[in-house]
């Protein structure tokens, strides 16, 4: 039996995982390479 809800749930969960890891990588690259973003992040803390 092919259930569409399970497929959509799997796509949504996997999409959140992919975007979460990409966001973490982008944040890491921004903090290590860009001094402006680094100063902004440190100023927000």
TrEMBL record:
Domain of life from the UniProt record: Bacteria
- Keyword Transmembrane appears in the UniProt entry: yes
Keyword terms, alphabetized: Membrane, Transmembrane, Transmembrane helix
Q: Which residues cross the membrane?
A: 7-29
**What is this protein called in UniProt?**
Uncharacterized protein
Species for this entry:
Spiroplasma mirum ATCC 29335
The organism's lineage is: Bacteria, Bacillati, Mycoplasmatota, Mollicutes, Entomoplasmatales
């Amino acid at each position: 039996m092919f259930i569409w809800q399970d497929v959509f749930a799997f796509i949504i969960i996997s999409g959140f995982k992919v975007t979460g890891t990409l966001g973490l990588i982008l944040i890491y690259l921004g903090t290590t390479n860009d001094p402006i973003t680094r100063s902004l992040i440190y100023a927000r803390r």
